[in-house]
Write a structure and sequence with these properties.
With 166 residues, the protein is α+β, with helices and mostly antiparallel strands. The protein has a single domain, classed as Aminopeptidase. The chain has 4 helices and 7 strands. The chain has a 7-stranded mixed β-sheet, with helices on both faces.
């Protein structure tokens, strides 16, 4: 069965449990001041668009899109279950998030991830998806435990360009 990313509720009990594993891993791997993962309630409060990929009705991956400005978004809360890694879950999630960012008229998608060895597969994934390294953005600061990326978004062919902002 093909993998599909569907909009979901970060406050669903099974998603809360899935994100708890994510947060536990982040806190185990990175120093406290370098953990930027959001709790489920913070995701819900932020108004983030949130997706999961499910198998047997259980989340095996998730990701979110938050607004940084009228033309920039941030990719947040990317996670693939250990048992589902290497199966394309994150690729499906990134495609859904990029499509939503384009639909919102964003010109750029940004993200922060870790620099530890644990995060190397994620960094490779983002680079394969076209993300380029950059410096800190938003409220982030230089941090040896953080890597920052951006993806310049091109409008889909046939979509009207947003009107210039005055």
């Amino acid at each position: 069965m093909p993998l599909t990313a569907l909009r979901d509720d970060p406050l669903s009990p099974d998603v809360i449990a899935f994100l708890a594993e994510h947060l536990a891993d982040m806190r185990r791997i990175s120093p406290p001041e370098s953990v930027h993962a959001l709790e489920p309630a913070a995701l819900a409060r932020s108004g983030a668009a949130f997706w999961t990929v499910r198998e047997a009705d259980r989340p095996i991956g998730c990701g979110a899109l938050t607004a940084l400005s009228d033309d920039e978004g941030e990719l947040k809360s990317m996670r693939t279950a250990h048992t589902a890694r290497g199966r394309g879950v994150a690729t499906v999630l990134i495609a859904a998030i990029v499509a939503e960012a384009k639909a919102r008229g964003y010109r750029r998608l940004l993200l922060e991830t870790g620099t530890e060895q644990y995060f190397q597969p994620a960094r490779r994934l983002y680079e394969r998806a076209g993300f380029q390294t950059r410096g800190p953005f938003g409220g982030y600061r230089e941090d040896p435990h953080s890597a920052y990326y951006e993806l310049e978004l091109q409008p889909d062919p046939g979509m009207a360009e947003p009107a210039e902002r005055f």
